[in-house]
Design a protein that fits this description.
Blueprint: H1 16-29, E1 42-43, E2 46-47, E3 51-56, H2 61-70, E4 76-82, H3 91-94, H4 111-117, E5 120-123, H5 131-139, E6 143-146, H6 156-163, E7 177-178, H7 181-190, E8 193-195, H8 199-214, E9 217-228, H9 243-246, E10 251-252, H10 260-271, E11 280-286, E12 293-301, H11 307-317, E13 324-326, H12 335-338, E14 344-351, E15 356-363, H13 367-381
Parallel strand pairs: 3-4, 3-5, 5-6, 6-8, 7-8, 9-11, 13-14
Antiparallel strand pairs: 1-2, 9-12, 10-11, 12-15, 14-15
Helix pairs in contact: 2-13, 7-13, 8-10
Bound molecules: NADP nicotinamide-adenine-dinucleotide phosphate.
NADP nicotinamide-adenine-dinucleotide phosphate is lined by residues 57, 59-63, 83-86, 124-127, 129, 147-148, 198-199, 231-232, 234-236, 365-366, 369-370.
């Protein structure tokens, strides 16, 4: 892979005059970047350049969520938003909550132009649509975070097994980092290409990780039932997501062998260091709400563990994590509590009668399950505060 040298994020080693010159150039050269850089970028007496961000697939749900987060990010500036169908239209005309907050206009996705204007690009497009543009952007030296499935698997055979198609750029898979920061933080910091995890796998992997790593459950016997709000399917209409058909209704889908199963198995195998047998049985359900994922995971205990032990293990495992909250014995995760936030709420209950450990996790599919996690990854990739732009507690009730 050919790489352009990365634009420096900090200017600790430059002469002050040169630093101010570069800073001014950066502010005034942003074609859509009328937003002034504020004092939030001041650090140790030096001003920090904002990371210049592009979003491809900006007109969709995760694209809109990226913009919602990034327009208030203290150290990033959105300079390019691409849409095939709405090029030339104001971004706020299709993302109505952004009215009055941005003057950005959709443009066609032109990798050459993106490479001159962006340090990082988020790909918020359907499966299969990221591969070629990611390859081109990587070749041009732009860092990429793909919110879709194209760069989540390390092995092209695994991709073919779950998606029934050949990967067009298998040479990139070994370099791509699976962007679950709680699992791969150090690798994400150095990554040029991040495969942002799926929404269900995010909730499930964060739920099981303390127990898989502690070796107190059987990785070959993982049973997951999970529920998702309808925004998880994206903004393209389909009969299953039509209001009269999905309201007052709960329906399972993808039974058996939903594609996210492979991602869960790959993640658990990685927690084990690649060895051991891993088997996940997963059934997702569509439920009548806009956003949110609740996962209930049944693990087979291989040693005695009380509920208090299990919660203590989770608390110890996640004690330094900014976005994983371990709930105690008196509370269970709820989708409404995490809606709009980048938090994943988790807890566990031991069931000595069945020898099972029941783990529960809740996230917002569009935030920790997609755009929020993608921004968390960007923060790591550019040496920023990992939680920058992501501290909002969401909206309740
Ligand atoms: N929704 C979620 O909760 C969620 C969670 C985790 C991951 N993801 C993943 O994130 C990606 C985006 O999901 P989403 O929910 O934002 O979908 P979406 O609402 O359907 O938006 C996708 C956008 O991509 C553009 N697009 C569609 N087909 C394309 C193609 N062939 N080539 C280039 N652009 C195309 C469309 O914009 P234009 O037609 O205007 O160009 C569309 O607005 C998907 O890969 C999805 O699996 C979604």
């Amino acid at each position: 892979m050919e790489h352009r040298a990365l634009a420096p994020v900090f200017f600790f080693d430059l002469e002050p005059v040169q630093m101010l010159h570069d800073y001014a150039k950066a502010v005034y050269n942003h074609p859509n970047g009328s937003r002034p850089v504020t004092g939030a970028g001041l650090e140790r007496g030096f001003r920090r350049m904002p990371v210049r961000v592009g979003v491809i697939g900006g007109s969709g749900y995760t694209g809109g969520e990226l913009l919602r987060i990034l327009l208030h990010h203290p150290d990033a500036q959105v300079v390019y938003v691409a849409s095939r169908t709405q090029a030339g239209q104001p971004v706020a005309a299709s993302h109505l909550p952004l009215l009055g907050l941005t003057e950005l206009v959709y443009e066609p996705a032109d990798p050459g132009s993106i490479a001159t204007r962006c340090d990082v690009v988020f790909l918020a497009v359907p499966r299969g649509a990221s591969m070629d543009v990611a390859a081109e952007l990587c070749r041009l030296g732009v860092r990429v975070v793909d919110l879709g499935t194209d760069f989540r698997f390390r092995n092209p055979e695994t991709y073919r097994y779950w998606y029934g198609a050949d990967h067009r750029h298998p040479e990139l898979l070994a370099d791509a980092v699976y962007g679950l920061p709680e699992m791969n933080r150090e690798a994400v910091r150095k990554a040029r290409l991040v495969g942002n995890p799926g929404c269900y796998p995010t909730a499930v992997l964060l739920g099981v990780m303390p127990f898989i790593k502690a070796g107190c459950v059987d990785p070959a016997d993982v049973v997951v039932t999970a529920m998702s709000g309808v925004s998880g399917a994206g903004s393209t209409p389909a009969p299953m997501y039509h209001f009269p058909e999905c309201t007052e209704n709960v329906q399972a889908y993808g039974v058996p062998g939903h594609r996210h199963t492979g991602e869960m198995e790959q993640g658990i195998a990685a927690m084990l260091g690649g060895g051991g047998q891993v088997s996940v049985s997963f059934v997702p359900h569509l439920v009548p709400m806009s956003r949110g994922i609740q996962a209930t995971i049944h693990l087979r205990l291989t040693e005695k563990l009380t509920t208090a032990d299990a919660i203590a293990l989770m608390q110890e495992h996640y004690r330094f994590e900014p976005f994983v909250r371990v709930l105690g014995e008196n509370r269970l995760p709820q989708t409404k509590v995490v809606a709009g936030s980048n938090f994943c709420d988790v807890t566990a209950r031991s069931d000595p009668r069945t020898g099972r450990l029941i783990v529960l996790a809740a996230i917002d599919n569009l935030v920790k399950g997609a755009a929020g996690q993608a921004v968390q990854n960007m923060n790591l990739m550019f040496g920023l505060d990992e939680a920058a732009g992501l501290r909002s507690p969401g909206l309740y009730p």
